[in-house]
Amino acid sequence: MLIDYLNDRLDEAKRRRVVAHLASCGECRKEAALLIRLKNNQEMALKEVPQDIKLSAFDLVPKAQPQEKSLLAMLNLEPVYDSLKLVGVTMQFMKKMILIGGN
């Protein structure tokens, strides 16, 4: 639910529950802070990647119309997709850092 919260995908009641939980749970606040840092690093790394490399099979799938739910949403897989996308970008970033550090 934390990834959904950070991606602003929760209804108001769930969002309030997460906010209340974060207020009292230091461990979850640390996890949220880590996810935010990873997301920011991902966004910075993506700015440096050429457009043709940014494209993935998921990017080529037509976007769902606003009134339609995507297959990911219908199967409740958006958090999984977000996590995998984050892992992929993080791996690209780490590969770049290793190549830079190896020179």
Q: Give the rounded overall mean pLDDT.
A: 79
Would you identify the regions where 5 or more consecutive residues have pLDDT less than 50? Answer: none
Beta content comes to under 5%
Secondary-structure element order, N to C: HHHHHHH
Output the number of helix runs.
Answer: 7
Shape: flat
Helical residue percent band? over 70%
Radius of gyration: 16 Å
- Quaternary state of the chains: single chain
Description:
The chain contains 7 helices and no strands. By secondary structure, it is mostly helical. It has one domain (2-102). Helix 3 (26-48) packs across helix 7 (78-102).
Précis, in short:
This protein is mainly α and 103 residues long. The chain has helices spanning 2-6, 12-24, 26-48, 51-54, 57-60, 71-74, 78-102.
